[in-house]
């Protein structure tokens, strides 16, 4: 009877021994093992992403010519609109530079825009992450902001040789200094516990008592620019609910995020031109 029970308990004893040994392994060895394992997996994630891009390319090749002509016309209209926006942006940048020189203000951090394709999504109840197909080979740095057309995506937390890991704003580990649109007072934003079957959301804290928001009268939440990581004015989400906190000094509430965060295929990394400024 005893040998049979010993055979049944052997897998658990082996697992416990492995865990015990791992606890006493030096931190340097653990870090090296983790990075090595990630780098070994990276080519497979990138290859899968490239195959998906190839599939989408051939799917577009078989579409009717009329649809492609209409898409080309829409793209031409967008390009014309973007050309106008670029001219307006140049004028605004010159005006900002003039005001900075006039008021002797320190310049805002400058960024280089680096577009990157999403190779893998890693969503769970404890973290929300993306793996992108650019890393140290393109000068990506840890802490660099990541954005898309809808606003903030997240922040780069790990940089490897050819890939990088992005912590999404939906992740509970993500915190950011924010502000209600039109109000300069800073508030605190944090990601929430998100799952695959609900709209992405986050929480906001330390909101002044005179700011109001409801599901029918939302308030846009934007980056405040404090901390120097994210430029000010980038969209985070919509505040849909505010209620007094337990201490009664501030309000806390819920933030509705962009639903496209879970299906992004391409993002833009804001690589600082001078990392020492951040």
Alpha-beta content class: alpha+beta
The percentage helix is 25-40%
- The helix count comes to 3
Q: Whole-Å distance between the termini?
A: 66 Å
How would you describe this structure to a colleague?
With 278 residues, the protein is an alpha+beta fold. It folds into 2 domains: 60 residues, no CATH class; 159 residues, Rod shape-determining protein MreC, domain 2 (Thrombin, subunit H), CATH 2.40.10. The strands form 2 sheets. The chain has a 6-stranded antiparallel barrel. A hairpin with a 2-residue loop joins strand 3 and strand 4. The longest helix has 39 residues.
In short:
The protein has 278 residues and is of the alpha+beta class. It folds into 2 domains: 2-61, no CATH class; 114-272, Rod shape-determining protein MreC, domain 2 (Thrombin, subunit H, Beta Barrel). The chain contains 3 helices and 12 strands; from the N terminus they run αααββββββββββββ.
